[in-house]
């Protein structure tokens, strides 16, 4: 039977939802701990269904990202620690995640952490042979070279700066 | 645009998933054997992408098939025999030398890019979402393989010969990719699939561009082997499965 909840109940629901959102905004990416899963665009939606269960929707970054299981566990753990036991985490593939969802603020955090952020809007490029210019996150020089298209995690490539000689990760653009 | 029969839809998803899984597994066979450290990372990362794409498709296929079929994604992978696998013959070919692996990858990725691109417009929004990401990943794989083919083809006499041998040996397995059989036609007409004859022209253009840049010969028309999509496989798939499925066959239901 469905009845209209009294005013205070609706307020409680809203407070719980906002609490859940605040808690989830603190969950960090296990591979890139300077970014939260909200910053990176993995956390897509936090809602509440009729019976008060918190519904969390996350989206995978790369298809084979081995951290997705870990991220789902961390989301559940964060909610449980905050005393929010009624929750459900689901994975959504549509719309597909893109590096364009990484906020400007998060790009700056990546750079400060030593990872060159992905280029914006260049992910539709269909060049057969690449000639991207990546700026060194350490010294800012553009004289860099690719060491390996595949780096320490599924989402990164490995570069070297010819100016300061430092190797660095580049967040692959998709 | 008619409704696609549930079993045809399942079959169509299975074909896509199987092809990605088997190629992903082939990539995993390079672990510990790659020519250089960077390629160790590259080949395994490509494998990871492919298996990730396959996993999303299997999970969706299971959801589509509903209660009539109570198998989960793991059951589909570990408990089906070769005739039940619907992958393309090209991807079950053995790794051979590095040139073979790169040519196989380039042939497949040059096909996967336009297929995923078309699938981003699928009426099935879950498939469209999976395809959106997979298209960009496949583009990355295509570029990686193409750069190696360029390096080897336009390299030494030996590297040129090896990569040309790989192109010639694998050519007869490429025709099957564009075969519009009943399942592919039904899926396409219902807005779930892809017009593979249109994909063919884009594939030929890409492959010709890479081979020409790499000073390699584009093979002449020849007889093409087919059967993978209907479960008729070469002997290589059975060996692959016996390795991949060993643990679940010997110790059913084991989990990490």
Automatic annotation (TrEMBL), chain A:
At the top level, the lineage of the source is: Bacteria
Q: Indicate the segments forming the MIP18 family-like domain, all copies.
A: 20-81
- What are the PaaD zinc beta ribbon domain coordinates in residue numbering? 123-172
Q: Which InterPro entries match?
A: Fe-S_Maturation_MIP18 (IPR052339), FSCA_dom_sf (IPR034904), MIP18-like (IPR002744), PaaD-like (IPR011883), Zn_ribbon_PaaD (IPR056572)
In terms of Gene3D superfamilies, this protein maps to: Fe-S cluster assembly (FSCA)
SUPFAM superfamilies in the record: Fe-S cluster assembly (FSCA) domain-like (SSF117916)
**Protein name, entry field:** Phenylacetate-CoA oxygenase
Q: Which organism is this entry from?
A: Pseudosulfitobacter pseudonitzschiae
Organism ancestry? Bacteria, Pseudomonadati, Pseudomonadota, Alphaproteobacteria, Rhodobacterales
Automatic annotation (TrEMBL), chain B:
Q: Which GO terms describe its cellular component?
A: cytosol
Which Pfam families does this one have?
PaaA_PaaC
Q: Mind listing the GO biological process terms from this record? A: phenylacetate catabolic process
Q: Tell me which InterPro entries the record gives.
A: Aromatic_CoA_ox/epox, Ferritin-like, Ferritin-like_SF, PaaA_PaaC, PaaC
The UniProt entry, under SUPFAM superfamilies, shows: Ferritin-like
Q: What protein name applies here?
A: Phenylacetate-CoA oxygenase subunit PaaC
Q: Which gene encodes it?
A: paaC
């Amino acid at each position: 039977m469905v009845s209209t909840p009294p005013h205070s109940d609706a307020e409680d629901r809203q407070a719980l939802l906002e609490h859940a959102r605040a808690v989830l905004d603190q969950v960090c990416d296990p591979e890139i701990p300077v970014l939260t899963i909200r910053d990176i665009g993995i956390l897509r939606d936090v809602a509440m269904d009729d019976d008060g269960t918190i519904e969390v929707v996350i989206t995978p970054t790369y298809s084979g990202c081995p951290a997705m299981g870990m991220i789902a566990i961390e989301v559940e753990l964060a909610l449980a620690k905050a005393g929010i036991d009624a929750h459900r985490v689901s994975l959504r593939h549509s719309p597909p995640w893109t590096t364009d969802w990484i906020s400007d603020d998060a790009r700056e955090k990546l750079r400060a952490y030593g990872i060159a952020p992905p280029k914006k809007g260049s992910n539709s490029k269909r060049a057969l042979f690449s000639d991207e210019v990546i700026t060194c996150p350490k010294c800012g020089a553009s004289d860099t070279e690719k060491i390996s298209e595949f780096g320490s995690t599924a989402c990164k490539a490995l570069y070297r700066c010819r100016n300061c000689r430092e190797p660095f990760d580049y967040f692959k653009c998709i | 645009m008619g409704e696609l029969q549930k079993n045809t839809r399942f079959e169509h998803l299975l074909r896509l998933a199987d092809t990605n899984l088997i190629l992903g597994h082939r990539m995993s066979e390079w672990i510990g054997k790659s020519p250089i450290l960077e390629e160790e990372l590259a080949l395994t990362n490509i494998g990871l992408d492919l298996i990730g794409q396959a996993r999303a498709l299997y999970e969706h296929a299971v959801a589509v098939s509903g209660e009539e079929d109570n198998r989960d994604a793991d059951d589909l992978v570990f408990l089906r025999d070769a005739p039940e696998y619907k992958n393309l013959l090209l991807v079950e070919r053995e790794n051979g030398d590095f040139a073979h692996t790169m040519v196989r990858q380039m042939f497949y990725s040059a096909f996967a890019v336009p297929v995923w691109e078309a699938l981003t417009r699928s009426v099935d929004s879950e498939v469209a979402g999976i395809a959106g990401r997979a298209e960009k990943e496949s583009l990355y794989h295509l570029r990686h393989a193409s750069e190696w083919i360029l390096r080897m083809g336009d390299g030494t006499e030996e590297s040129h010969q090896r990569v040309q041998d790989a192109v010639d040996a694998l050519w007869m397995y490429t025709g099957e990719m564009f075969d519009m059989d009943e399942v592919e036609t039904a899926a396409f007409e219902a807005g779930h699939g892809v017009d593979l004859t249109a994909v063919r022209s884009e594939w030929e253009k890409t492959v010709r561009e890479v081979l020409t840049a790499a000073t390699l010969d584009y093979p002449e028309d020849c007889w093409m082997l087919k059967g993978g999509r209907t479960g008729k496989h070469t002997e290589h798939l059975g060996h692959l499965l016996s390795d991949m499925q060993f643990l679940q066959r010997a110790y059913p239901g084991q989990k990490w």
